[in-house]
Write a structure and sequence with these properties.
Helix content: 55-70%
Strand content: under 5%
CATH architecture: Up-down Bundle
Shape: globular
Structural class: mainly alpha
Largest sheet: 2 strands, antiparallel
Distance between the termini: 25 Å
Number of helices: 5
Number of domains: 1
CATH superfamily: dinb family like domain
CATH topology: Four Helix Bundle (Hemerythrin (Met), subunit A)
Mean pLDDT: 93
Number of strands: 2
Low-confidence stretches: none
Order of helices and strands: HHHHEEH
Length: 160
Amino acid sequence: MTEIEAAKKRAVSAMEMFLRNFSKVPDERLHWQAAPGAKSPLHIAAHTALYAARFAAMMETRVLPQPDNLDEWLAAREQEERAVTFRGEVEAAFRAGTERVLAAMDALQPEDLNAMLDSGQGWSMPMRFLVDLPATHANLHCGQIDFLQTCWGDQQVYVG
């Protein structure tokens, strides 16, 4: 199995695990916040789902976002995430974004993994790191969903 094929498998597996765990969040808890200003499970899920397509765009263009105004750029991403209001929107966005990630990875050649993507802000990201970001990102945010579940007393381990 090539490095790219392995990254594709990890991306799909992480998406499936995230969606499985998110499916266990009761409807009445989708907007629950652990503290004022904290992200709800739905907001975490929307963020996670929408970033799949954002990672794909970076792979497709081989360019990292280079906003002129980072605060405005982040506010726009936040607004997009808050526009997701239903569980089904999360799954649809996540699956579509992951399909785009897989297609972007299919377009990469093994030597492309050695490319460095410039941020325009004095740092760069290896393509090798970027191809693992869809899985890593989903796994990290899955942990947030797991933590919120424990906050409301759900101690169930969801493995299947």
